[in-house]
Amino acid sequence: MSGDHLFVLGATHHTAPLAVRERLSLPAESAEALRTELAGLPGLREFTMVSTCNRIEFYGVASAPTVAAEVQRAFCERQHFTAAEFEQFRLSLTGPGAVQHLLEVTAGLDSQMLGETEILGQVKEAYGEAQARGHTGAVLNRVFQKAFQSAKHVRSNTAITEGQVSIANVAVELAGNIFGSLAQTRILLVGAGDIGEKTAKAFQSRGAAALSVASRRLERAMELANQLGAFAVPFWLMPVKLADFDVVACATSAPDVVVTLSAVQAAMRRRPARPLFLIDLALPRDIDPAVADLENVFLYNLDDLAKIAEQNRAAREAEIGKCRALIVERATALWRQVEPRLSGGNAANAFPQVKAES
Amino acid sequence: MFAGMSDRSWLWLAAECYLAGLLLGTYTLVRGGRQAGGWINLIITAGYIFQLVGLGLRGHAVGGCPLGNTFEIFQFTAWSAITLYLVVGVTFRLSLLGFFTASLAAALTLVSLSIPAWDATRRAHIFGGNGWIELHAALALFSYGVFALLALTSAMYLLRNYSLKSKNLGGWFTFLPSIYDLDHISVRLLITGVAIMTAALSVGATYWLRDPERVNPVKIVVTVAIWAAYSAALAMRLHGLLLAKRFSWFLVGLFAAALISLWPVDNSRHPKEPNPAVQAPR
User: Among A180, A292, A312, whose Cβ lies nearest the Cβ of B180?
Assistant: First the structure.
């Protein structure tokens, strides 16, 4: 067959276990060196490299099918893989299959956390870099731009991104159901562990500005508060200060309850009209379950949040068929537009500057 | 196409628009998709315009604000609620409020259109040419429209509260506004409703003090009781004595009572009406 070939080559979380993905990941300097090497590869007319913690993918337009093998060789040499080893978990698609794969990736359908939207930003960034360096041409420009439009279309017309699927994000979404905007919401994090920190960061990512941290070890609270740009609250003062906060997320390793019924009752007497959202991320539990019966108090523990995350995940999975149908339709139409350009070999002058340097 | 249409035909058109809004909202909710807010607003606006024309024609025919029978009172209350929604809904962008408002307006208008007895007699010039009485009646009925919208936001609060307390957040609960926003808008609507009703009663009181014989005591007692109940709810809410779920239940119940109270209020006027009743054209 004459003309150019569109391909995608790489490895993702679907086939490569975590230990392998660690070896696949490219530090910034290596990525830069690899890009320069690929830009000089004879027959590789266009390429974009997408590298995230869950995938490494090379999208390319080549003058011959053998060029993809050259890309693989260059990558494997740099990352110290043998060809046989890499081929155990290799993803390799060409033509319409490659187009459909990209559309699925940008729509979050191929992500480990189904329907997540961060991948779209990562692919956009990768494409932006390739475009800025002149590594893309008529074919990849068309394919990537249409893939971004397709991702938006899928998101708008299905429920693939509805509902959060991580514990921290579910907690943030619940806070939105209670307070609407989180900009004016005051948040207290009790316990300075990893889960608490992730939750605090999730709140900050949704615009929560007034964040405080309380921990049995004040120095640890201050350390985390500094890291998050928050305030530190002495642990013994926490029950008294409860009324000053709208959201209290507890994630301590204390063996007993740290937020008691009487403390919450006292807090609600001081703020009866304003809801209080209590998030218990600890095991054993930090918050007395009896507070759930109080008016205007909403208590969610780890099991509640996990259950909601699971329901959301199931709801997203139920949308896969609908998403795939939309993607197949768009991928087919896109391939029809791209195929003549490949047959014509009109990408021959892609990234001429880089080639001239090599 | 529309030339020569009777006021009732316009009001039927309006009711059908509100029903279409209700059906569209229900369809999108059942399908689990996002609310077609833009379409619902468009349909409600169309219904509002048709209703405005219908009430305008009726007002022209009876020589004043059309508040002369139960049919007209229900129509005017629905129209007031929609007027408020078009301001509140656009300003606060409360998700699902359009659907709930369309449902209420469809119920009020279709029920009033389906009971011919409510519109059997049309009374012209019921305000005897007194603009102040007309203003009093229009303001009083407008405050009922505000309370109708308030009952809707309160009902939405109860649903949101239930979903959060029972940890049932999927399905169409997803589209409800936040509990804080619903409480906030309810308080504002309550303040607005009480202010408008206070103004209505103040205007009415001036007239009543001048000529106490002309006003039926049943009407005064019922109206003042409704005003006092809403005012008490506002005072207790502002002082933190009536909050959250109890506040919302109280407002939903109070609106039901206010709606029922329209009956004795309307009936109380008949024996002392200055103008003879005219048979409504069918």
Answer: A180
Contact B174 A163 (CB under 8 A): yes
Contact A238, A214 (CB under 8 A): yes
CA–CA separation, A330 vs A147, rounded Å?
9
B42-79: per-residue pLDDT in tens?
898 999 999 999 988 888 887 777 777 888 888 988 88
The average pLDDT across B142-165 equals 92
Which three-class secondary structure state does DSSP give residue B254? helix
Share of residues in chain B with pLDDT > 90 (%): 33
Give CATH superfamily name and number for A167-311.
Answer: NAD(P)-binding Rossmann-like Domain (3.40.50.720)
**Which residues of A participate in catalysis according to the annotation?**
53
- Burial class for B239, CB neighbours closer than 10 Å (0-12, 13-18, 19+): exposed
Cis peptide before B66, with omega less than 30 degrees from 0?
Answer: no
Q: Which two tokens stand for residue A89?
A: 């978990």
A176 touches chain B (CB under 8 A): yes
Q: Which residue of A has its CA nearest to B236?
A: A273
Chain centroid, CA A69 distance in Å: 30
Whether the per-residue pLDDT at A356 is higher than 50: the answer is no
For A177, the closest of B33, B164, B243 (CB atoms) is B164
* Residue in A287, A309, A277 with CA at minimum distance from that of residue A180: A277
Q: What is the pLDDT of residue A207?
A: 87
Distance from CA of A322 to the nearest CA of B (A): 13
Residues of A in contact with B32 (CB under 8 A): 159
CB–CB of B133/B123 below 8 Å? no
**Of the partner residues A163, A174, A295, the one whose CB lies closest to the CB of residue B244:** A295
Give the C-alpha separation, A210 to A81, whole Å: 48
First to last CA, chain A: 29
Q: What is the pLDDT of residue B133?
A: 77
Q: Which residues of A touch B182 (CB under 8 A)?
A: none
Yes or no, beta carbons of B170 and A273 under 8 Å apart: no
pTM: 0.73
Residue of A71, A43, A41 whose CA lies nearest to A56: A71
Contacts (Cβ under 8 Å, ≥6 apart) of B219: B264, B265, B268, B269
Q: Which of A315, A332, A327 is nearest to A115 (CA)?
A: A315
Residue B163 with chain A: CB contacts under 8 Å: 177
Q: How many CB atoms lie within 10 A of CB A216?
A: 17
Q: Is the dihedral of CA B147, B148, B154, B157 positive or negative?
A: negative
pLDDT for position A297? 96
Name the residue ranges covered by the structural domains of chain A.
Answer: 5-160+319-343, 167-311
Residue A356 contacts B, CB cutoff 8 Å:
no
CATH code at A5-160+319-343: 3.30.460.30
pLDDT tens-digit series, residues B110-144: 998 988 888 777 666 666 666 777 788 788 888 88
Q: What angle, rounded to 10 degrees, do the helices at B37-62 and B70-92 form?
A: 140
**What ranges do the domains of chain B cover?**
7-273
Q: Write down the pLDDT at residue B267.
A: 67
- Contact of A308 with chain B, judged by CB distance below 8 Å, is answered with yes
Residues 254-283 of A with CB under 8 A from B: 272-275
